[in-house]
């Protein structure tokens, strides 16, 4: 309560975060105002609980051939709710129903890299990252789409033709590379 009766010598403080150390001070007051605060109490830690907050800013992409790079903002220590905190990284090829999961045991780690030769270049994956600690598993983040690593284009442009325009200019033309064959976002061409 905000104000405690002058004959009461205990109070229950609620809505605290789990597994956080707190110290308390008490101020006596009357109709004139409040006095000096007491010395702080000894530090007291609240009990552990299952984590309630998943990591934010889940995304990824890039990396090397045959890699899926997943990144996130780590959960702050005051929201980890207990010892043994870590992440559960879940991903699947877009359109698939089966999740692949990996455990990241370090609470400060902001990324996970899945390496597998079967990963096709620039393929979309559904990704989500959950949390856990010694008390159990907490929620997952919302599902987001992350693309596997790109590779250089595997084919050259076809149908290259050149036409003289003047004594100092030649127009060069070519057929576009089909999107699926480009192994990623095609940024441009070099002539």
TrEMBL record:
Where is the protein localized?
Cell membrane
Q: Name one GO molecular function term.
A: cell-cell adhesion mediator activity
Which GO CC annotations does the UniProt entry carry? axon; plasma membrane
Q: Does the keyword Membrane apply?
A: yes
Q: Where is this region: Disordered?
A: 35-65
Family matches, as InterPro entries: FN3_dom, FN3_sf, Ig-like_fold
Residues annotated as domain Fibronectin type-III: 1-49, 54-151, 156-191
User: Which biological process terms from the Gene Ontology are attached to this UniProt entry?
Assistant: axon guidance; brain development
Main location class: membrane
* Keyword line: Cell adhesion, Cell membrane, Disulfide bond, Glycoprotein, Lipoprotein, Membrane, Signal
UniProt keyword Transport present: no
Domain of life, source organism:
Eukaryota
**Do you know which PANTHER family this protein is assigned to?**
CONTACTIN 3B-RELATED, PROTEIN SIDEKICK
For this entry, the protein name equals CNTN3 protein
Tell me what organism the protein belongs to.
Answer: Pomatostomus ruficeps (Chestnut-crowned babbler)
Organism lineage reads as: Eukaryota, Metazoa, Chordata, Craniata, Vertebrata
């Amino acid at each position: 309560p905000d104000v405690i009766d002058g004959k009461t010598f205990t109070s229950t403080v609620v809505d605290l975060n789990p597994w956080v150390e707190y110290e308390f001070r008490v101020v006596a007051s009357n109709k004139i105002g409040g006095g000096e605060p007491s010395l702080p109490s000894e530090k007291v830690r609240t009990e552990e609980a299952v984590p309630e907050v998943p990591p934010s800013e889940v995304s990824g992409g890039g990396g090397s051939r045959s890699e899926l790079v997943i990144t996130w903002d780590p959960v702050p220590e005051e929201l980890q709710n207990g010892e043994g905190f870590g992440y559960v990284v879940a991903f699947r090829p877009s359109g698939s129903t089966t999740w692949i999961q990996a455990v990241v045991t370090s609470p400060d780690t902001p990324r996970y890299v899945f390496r597998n030769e079967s990963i096709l270049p620039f393929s979309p994956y559904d990704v989500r990252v959950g949390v856990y600690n010694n008390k159990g598993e907490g929620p997952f983040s919302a599902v987001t789409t992350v693309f596997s690593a790109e590779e250089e284009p595997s084919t050259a442009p076809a149908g290259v033709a050149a036409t003289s325009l003047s004594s100092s200019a030649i127009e060069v033309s070519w057929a576009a590379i089909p999107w699926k064959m480009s192994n990623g976002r095609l940024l441009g061409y070099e002539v």
